[in-house]
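User: Can you help me understand a structure? I only have the sequence.
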Amino acid sequence: MEDNHNSGNCPRTSDFGLPTYLAPVQLSIIIVSYNVQYFLEQCLHSVRRATAGLEAEVIVVDNASTDGSMEYLQPRFPRVVFLLQKENMGFARACNLGWKNSSGKNVLFLNPDTILAEDTLHVCLNFLGQHPLAGAVGVHMIDGAGVFLKESKRGFPHPMTSLFKLTGLASLFPQSPLFARYYLGHLVENGNHEVDVLAGAFMMIPRGVVQKVGAFDEAFFMYGEDIDLSYRIQKAGFKNYYLAETSIIHFKGESTRKASLDYVRRFYGAMIIFVRKHYQGLGASLLRLALGAAIGASAFLSILGRHLWKKESKKLQPPTGAVAVVGTEDQVRQLAAAFDKTTPVQHLENLAATTPQQAQTLVLCEGVLSFKEIIAAMRRHPKAFRYRIHAAGSGSIVGSDNSSDRGTIINLAG
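Assistant: Let's start by predicting it. Here is the structure, written out as tokens:
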């Protein structure tokens, strides 16, 4: 593997924090990227804002992207450390490479299709500092439509818990502490909780904990590695916490194509690896059989759907019709070229009432708004619009209409 990371006793500087000379920094942020050029651009802008006042380093491990990601992003973020790989090594292995090249007292594993609020990292670091038994923290996550992502807090996939989910009982009783244990439906969304499993999309861990329990298990190519690491953290005597004090956007659908055979194979295959590794007995055997059946059924439905409906990948085209824009005058002018018609919006206090009724798309521009205000607006009015986000100084607009949507990308350069 080759990369452009400079090792050795040389100074490392970062526009995400203070200069360091390979001494431990307060936080290392590790992002694994694969063909998500513009989502990663928005993510890095939000990370830059969120690391204000922190000693931080940002390491992007690129798994051999073919979309021009690195050629586009490296000049725009010259002090981010980019580790360029010649093959797609998978999420777990790439995270571990980033971890081995980091120096932070705490490490954040972060997905590239996320947007942080300005206070997110501070909230998490303060919590870790006040809770010495905290092994890892995750946060409240919403999708691109402003809807809460249930995987922000999860229980371990014990045999009965998993069977309740696979049989649909968890959906029938979404707040039951017994049947809905997989997503901990009995724990309120807006409260801090000790939980079993945190999402690998945002997982902050003290360095000492990673050194004690180990990093991600590379037997997991994609999916399941966060459950395994959460399990080992808890087994070592530490606690995993879900924090609702801060919220982030995880577009999710951009990196998860649930209708694909590849997704079916990897997702359920990861669950089988986890069960074989950690569970024994009749319950575990029944769960492996159920997971095998789920793989077969999901694969059959995926093939059938493609042949019957011949669904094509969604083309990433700008929306048509009126588009409402919350931004500066310069941003409104810049975005006007990307849409048929733009209407400036002045007030967010009563967003749904003040936005033109004919506008289905709402572009929220960071600059006049903070990322925290953008996230709060989406949470207050989930699904009210097709939300699109533009960071100040970025060359793109991104968005996603739900957690399984591939996502919308608009390159402002044309």
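Now, to help you interpret it: The longest helix spans residues 282-309. Confidence is low (pLDDT under 50) at residues 1-14, 17-21, 293-317. Let me know which part you'd like to focus on.
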